[in-house]
Amino acid sequence: MTGRMRAVVIRKKEKGSIAVAEDMPIPIPGQGEVLIRVLAAGICGSDRHLYNWDPSARDWINDTPRIIGHEFCGEVAEVGPGVPSPPAEGTYVSAEMHETCGQCFHCRTGQGNICEKTIIYGYQKDGCFAEYVKVPASNVIPLPRDAIPHKVGAFLDALGNAVHSTQKVNLAGRSILVLGYGPIGAMTAAVAHFVGASGIFIAEVGSFQLEKAREWARSVSEERGGVGVKVFDVSKGGEEAIEDTIRDTSGGVDVVFEQSGSSRALNDGLRMVRNGGHIVLLGIPGTKDMTIEDYGKNVIFKGITLHGVIGRRMFKTWYHMLALLKSGLSVDHVVTQEYPLSDFDKGMAAFNGGESLKVVLFNK
Amino acid sequence: MTGRMRAVVIRKKEKGSIAVAEDMPIPIPGQGEVLIRVLAAGICGSDRHLYNWDPSARDWINDTPRIIGHEFCGEVAEVGPGVPSPPAEGTYVSAEMHETCGQCFHCRTGQGNICEKTIIYGYQKDGCFAEYVKVPASNVIPLPRDAIPHKVGAFLDALGNAVHSTQKVNLAGRSILVLGYGPIGAMTAAVAHFVGASGIFIAEVGSFQLEKAREWARSVSEERGGVGVKVFDVSKGGEEAIEDTIRDTSGGVDVVFEQSGSSRALNDGLRMVRNGGHIVLLGIPGTKDMTIEDYGKNVIFKGITLHGVIGRRMFKTWYHMLALLKSGLSVDHVVTQEYPLSDFDKGMAAFNGGESLKVVLFNK
Amino acid sequence: MTGRMRAVVIRKKEKGSIAVAEDMPIPIPGQGEVLIRVLAAGICGSDRHLYNWDPSARDWINDTPRIIGHEFCGEVAEVGPGVPSPPAEGTYVSAEMHETCGQCFHCRTGQGNICEKTIIYGYQKDGCFAEYVKVPASNVIPLPRDAIPHKVGAFLDALGNAVHSTQKVNLAGRSILVLGYGPIGAMTAAVAHFVGASGIFIAEVGSFQLEKAREWARSVSEERGGVGVKVFDVSKGGEEAIEDTIRDTSGGVDVVFEQSGSSRALNDGLRMVRNGGHIVLLGIPGTKDMTIEDYGKNVIFKGITLHGVIGRRMFKTWYHMLALLKSGLSVDHVVTQEYPLSDFDKGMAAFNGGESLKVVLFNK
Amino acid sequence: MTGRMRAVVIRKKEKGSIAVAEDMPIPIPGQGEVLIRVLAAGICGSDRHLYNWDPSARDWINDTPRIIGHEFCGEVAEVGPGVPSPPAEGTYVSAEMHETCGQCFHCRTGQGNICEKTIIYGYQKDGCFAEYVKVPASNVIPLPRDAIPHKVGAFLDALGNAVHSTQKVNLAGRSILVLGYGPIGAMTAAVAHFVGASGIFIAEVGSFQLEKAREWARSVSEERGGVGVKVFDVSKGGEEAIEDTIRDTSGGVDVVFEQSGSSRALNDGLRMVRNGGHIVLLGIPGTKDMTIEDYGKNVIFKGITLHGVIGRRMFKTWYHMLALLKSGLSVDHVVTQEYPLSDFDKGMAAFNGGESLKVVLFNK
Question: Which of A248, A327, D204, D286 qualifies as a cystine partner to D181, CB 3.0-4.6 A?
Fold first, then answer.
């Protein structure tokens, strides 16, 4: 397949140069590669950082023009040479967008997500905000059509971060505290609820996010009894209310998910986790350093465990995520806006405005 | 408290000598003991073996008269001397009915359930089919009234066996096969569903049990989508249908729960589990020996793990079970008959007739 | 490289047709393959089964002529096309001789050893009892020259089976019972000792093996104090002596390694393991079925775990094995005979005669 | 037994009031208690903080006079009433000196070390720098006389901290970095070496400690080959040398033990640990807060796990520690000075002077 396609492109390494283009060449799949026709793609927080040309994101861009985007689903359009058992044309798929070396200790022991030679699509190679994207065949993940609508297939990469976070501790019957109800926090809460967590506490500062959290809390409480979901507005402090509720309800939170990157949130979590509990760390702070308050008391004497989470276990997380979705896990409430790819600017505006969780772009 | 009480008693070590008595002395709690007024109690399969004076159960009886029964809930009636932080009178409780030595490696490392000096109430000491029962204070488990109705509190010991089975492997997103839909199988399926298992296959031979399994399958499928629950009648063979379904649906079962004690069931499980899967073993066969067919192929080459399950982790399983119940786990559908304690005979008749899952006796 | 080479070949699918040939073509590495000049190779028990044309082994042979052998070390001689980051010529290497599909759940989650599409070199493709062997580049394992002499590099595949067995349970401070002191048993004992096992019991029936076990026991007792190693001759029964010693020394064995394939050994292990202990299963019996005696008592009531072990975790076991060898693990005492490849018949005769542990063939 | 005894006592809550007294009353064992004749006791870093009346330690003292000390071995002298299966007089024992509530979630699940109601002997109750000490019978640990000399029995509490640290990750074949070669660091290194760690890196600032580390490194390198032990003087910086060595030898450290409480050490560890590695945290800093540098890069993107360690798993760590000692673990090189109890001042002076690892006091 040859020709031109629509795509969201960084034209020059400078602010304001990311826009929809109509004339990008359709990629040609090379040795061991697969070309995928993109059906839908999700906007990630890191895409916003790119769009705003923040140092944390722009430094990963190695060259221009560069097509951005790294969450999507699509259909196999063409298979390059040298692919063993190639997927049939039209196969419904997503793809892991971290390309790893395949030869290091991590890659050869099922931990490709921490390979030191990782190349990230949408940064160092062309991404998926486009009509077509090519990826290594070994990164392609076939999807079950009936369990995963396009709208959800669009952001499996992000859902994988949430699922990976929940793989650190068996959450059945555990109480959890989610710090930050962005898309990842919303998905983490949904997974925790699905696997039987007992008592889900959510702390947020944004009014839109709080409303979404409360909406979800109501929907799941109707469906199932139990301790339920409690949402806390901490925009003006008020962590005491969480501590009081936790003390009354579960005597200390078993697992904290720090998904905001805020130093205050992390220290809240350290105070609220029970002795012997777990803190799962995913949020990246704006500053380089992070101060842990009362380290001796809150980390050592409590005997807690902290887990850094990066990417998705390759490919343990993918299999687990698909199994959860096939089993009935529902996450489509996380999508708050949908746009055609050509309206990328509108999607980014919605996301930047703060009144959104996950924004999905469709090719049509 | 002194006086006489109603209880189900073994009068003599011979068949047919188990009956309701009205004149048993109310136990007096000794050093470190608590007297509990029984509210409700569940009949266990081992009680039936006692009732029928089967060798497997009768050999555990050390003396007569002996009050039987070892699953119950009640309220604290009196506390003996030497109990630190004694529970208040009227506290709603259940109790672990395995009394362990407290001093061996197992007891001191959270594995009291495999203590070699275990004394079982209802066998070596008086049990709970009575108006009152006394137990060591350290075995008492306070229960939350709003999360656990008496009807369910009545059989937490049995539910603990099922929960312990599910603690061997994280079941979220896993496919499972339950071999035998007796009370333990029914509860295992319920817990697995609650914690997000993906694809629950149930094989049974009894028509009453099959009907109950199908009833439950319908009820949970309405509530949640996904792969769902599939029930198979294997009374006339027909394991091929299970194998076909498993192959189509999940490509091999992740975890098998062998809860029937049948050699055929175990070997079915070994064939149907996927490479690298797990078999959780709880069923006790009628015969001493168990033959594993095609051992090299089904155990070694498959690289599977087999887990023997006995009792409840003391007290990890109890905490986990209470957390699941507080979280919304529902198991009251497992109770198929309810009787007053005075109608113990009717309860046992129902149980013996095979048209029951869990039978609960109430004091009123 | 082209030309003819020496190799041990199955000429026809019949007994007595395995012999050294001088005229086999040197393999030509294809897409993604590496040609390795073999330095040394170990004879495995399965090679003996092939040599004796036993059904268990011969049925795996798909075609003739077939070069046998699947344990070796060598040097990279030539690299085929399409190998990313190809190893330099002369690199000292071994190789995993299970070729797996790379696309299934197991392969993509670090469990290639249980891939259902495994192809085994020396059976379904040509093996390493030859001057040269070709394997997929992704199966090649670079070796550190100073930590691994050729004599040991020759049987890393087998050592991997032993190391994989020891990966099932952390053995530091644990007591173990090794049932069968063949090459795998000898290596398992050595690894267990190296990682701090406390009390190593070995049961054997062969007089040569018993002598080797006692020799090793003496050598390690001199080096380190502690409970030490105890060797038991069970050729005429005598398991009671083991039970007595275990009872006195450790109150029950923490971990049993069943590496003989004998039904009697497995049942000995089930009796001797402590409550809550582990049985690691690797031995393949001559018969299809395996009878577990007193299943209820020895498996369920004991609450034990049984682990089937097949191959080597790909590639977790390889990394772990290399780390142990670099750390100082010594296994060269397992080699009891060394021959040039041309004397393959003598090596096999020594192995068949029973007066050997590991026999190594050298190319020179 | 009644009478007066020698003991090290805090007379008044002020600096300089800790001294040897000859007239303390011998404790009388109450309900469930055991009186132990102390044979030997170790001085802990926290005893030094008490001696120097540092805020971190003095705030734990609830009353005076208070006998200090919490590491010891001795012989049972007398058993109070109500002790089931009381130990025989003269039994060689040590004791866990954290008294826990026995009733909370942690206590009932084998994690008494994080009980929120812990009472520490030597702070809130009288300790073991005395001729006699009384403790709850359930805290007493019988010791094997031939595996544990008094000199080592004297500091099992501290060894337990080191062993607990090593229980967080299976260290066989792993490379480790020990930050701080005080007594705990020295013991951690010894345990890691004993269980087969591959590459042990030690960083220290004190010249005495460095000499001791190098002495030990030489002694174990002679006994066993392998990567060995490398000691680094970081008193004037020089972490680059460690990083270079780690890069060459193992490509990143698998497990870091932070046992110094220094912020610089923790951040060194975070930089030097490999992706996916572990940091075991035990050192308590002098300041309340701890700053993690480059948190996103070193914690999240590396996908590491951090483990806070407090006390000893009750009683899993004790059993594991005894098993290691019986197996041959040697730690007596950690004792650098021995004094009679009456020379407590000299012992403390040696410890305070910095020219010591573990100082042991003997009753004679």
Answer: D204
